[in-house]
């Protein structure tokens, strides 16, 4: 029997995505669990048993890497935007002109200081948002450097707005800027330097944003 690769991939994605949503909920619940919670030991045993079962059925790391060898699957399993990655919050972006805007909500599992998202997650999110801004401007490039400034704590369990835009390109160097906002407060701002691969070349025009 022949299988439609795209259909099988989509079915795999849907089932994995369903499992991922559940594991994200479980991760947040465990992070918020009290040490004196009644029945916690029994719950831990059930979780361990489920993990053992899933590990026994899962493919090897090498097989998974081979299956991810397409742009679509790389995005799907991204630790920032991936619907099939439990580490992703996830970030949801939409292109707007030569940039993008989106939202992300971090759970208590992303907490650093009390009630505050760990600053490292801001770097992950803005790295992707700036890279996507390059793509929107027609200048696909690789991250060379990020400079972040933290202005206001990012609260957990709140909708945060992420914005990024392409600034200009000079040869193989491309600059972008981005921000994370919570309501009317600027939480994080970033400037990024990206390098266009030699074989690709810059496709965009110089832009000021």
Automatic annotation (TrEMBL):
* EC id: 3.1.2.2
- Which stretches make up the Thioesterase domain? 115-185
InterPro entries with a match to the protein in the record: HotDog_dom_sf (IPR029069), THEM4/THEM5_acyl-CoA_thioest (IPR052365), Thioestr_dom (IPR006683)
Where is this protein localized, as stated in its record?
Cell projection, Ruffle membrane; Cytoplasm; Membrane
Which reaction(s) does its UniProt entry say it catalyses?
dodecanoyl-CoA + H2O = dodecanoate + CoA + H(+); hexadecanoyl-CoA + H2O = hexadecanoate + CoA + H(+); (9Z)-octadecenoyl-CoA + H2O = (9Z)-octadecenoate + CoA + H(+); decanoyl-CoA + H2O = decanoate + CoA + H(+)
User: Which Pfam families does UniProt cross-reference here?
Assistant: 4HBT
Main localization, broad class: membrane
The alphabetized UniProt keywords are: Apoptosis, Cell membrane, Cell projection, Cytoplasm, Fatty acid metabolism, Hydrolase, Lipid metabolism, Membrane, Transit peptide
* Coiled coil (UniProt feature): none
Membrane topology qualifier: Peripheral membrane protein
Look up keyword Nucleus and say if it applies: no
Indicate the family of this protein: Belongs to the THEM4/THEM5 thioesterase family.
Q: What is this protein called?
A: Acyl-coenzyme A thioesterase THEM4
Q: What is the lineage of its organism?
A: Bacteria, Bacillati, Actinomycetota, Actinomycetes, Mycobacteriales
